[in-house]
C-alpha cells in the first residue's frame, strides 16, 4: 500500500507535495494525465526536486506527430523503453534532425530547440526527464490536458479547449510553434 497525499494539483497523489521526503510509486500509479492521445505519468516533479528536474513517462497509440514546440529554458531527454518513437529536433542554427528511436534508444533536446515526436507503434513508452534554469514542466500535461484516474490508457483523445493554449503553455516553459514545418519525412 502506498501513502496518498493531497496536492495543489490533485485530491489524491502518491507524490508528496514537498521536497525531502522519500517515497515509492507502484507500477501503474503516479499522477496521470491525458493530452491528445498520449498518457503522461509523473513520478517526480519540481516540488520534490526543488525545481531541478522531473521524471515522467509517456505512452500512447500509434498516431500523429505532436505539435512542434520548444522549451526556452528546459533541456529534455527521451528514452524509449518499449516500441518505437520518431523524434524530430531542430538545432538553434536551423538544422533539422529526425531519428527513429526504439527500445533502449536515447534522444537529447537542448533548451530552445524546436522538437516534436510521433509514436510509431502501439504500446510505445517514453521515459522523459526535463531540467533547466526555468524549472520543470511536468504539470503542463494535466493543466493543458485532463487528469486520468486508473491504470488503463484512455480510448478517446482529449483535445484541450482553445483558451487553454493562451495561458497554460507559457506557465510551464512551453512555446508552441503552429507554423513550424519539418523538412524531414
From TrEMBL:
Organism, scientific name: Streptomyces phaeoluteigriseus
InterPro entries found in the cross-reference section: Cupin_2, QDO-like, RmlC-like_jellyroll, RmlC_Cupin_sf
Name the record gives this protein: Quercetin 2,3-dioxygenase
Highest taxon of the lineage: Bacteria
Cupin type-2 domain span: 61-119
Pfam families xref list: Cupin_2
Amino acid at each position: 500500500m502506498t501513502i496518498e497525499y493531497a496536492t495543489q494539483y490533485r485530491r489524491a497523489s502518491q507524490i508528496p507535495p514537498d521536497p525531502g521526503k522519500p517515497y515509492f510509486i507502484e507500477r501503474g500509479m503516479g499522477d496521470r494525465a491525458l493530452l491528445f492521445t498520449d498518457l503522461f505519468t509523473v513520478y517526480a516533479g519540481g516540488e520534490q526536486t526543488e525545481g531541478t528536474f522531473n521524471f515522467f513517462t509517456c505512452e500512447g497509440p500509434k498516431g500523429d506527430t505532436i505539435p512542434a514546440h520548444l522549451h526556452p529554458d528546459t533541456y529534455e531527454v527521451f528514452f524509449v523503453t518499449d516500441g518505437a518513437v520518431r523524434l524530430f529536433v531542430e538545432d538553434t542554427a536551423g538544422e533539422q534532425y529526425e531519428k527513429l528511436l526504439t527500445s533502449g534508444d536515447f534522444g537529447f533536446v537542448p533548451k530552445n530547440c524546436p522538437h516534436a515526436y510521433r509514436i510509431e507503434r502501439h504500446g510505445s513508452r517514453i521515459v522523459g526527464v526535463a531540467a533547466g534554469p526555468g524549472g520543470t514542466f511536468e504539470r503542463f500535461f494535466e493543466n493543458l490536458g485532463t487528469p486520468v484516474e486508473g491504470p488503463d490508457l484512455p480510448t478517446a483523445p482529449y483535445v484541450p479547449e482553445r483558451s487553454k493554449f493562451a495561458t497554460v503553455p507559457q506557465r510551464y516553459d512551453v512555446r508552441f510553434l503552429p507554423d513550424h514545418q519539418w523538412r524531414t519525412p
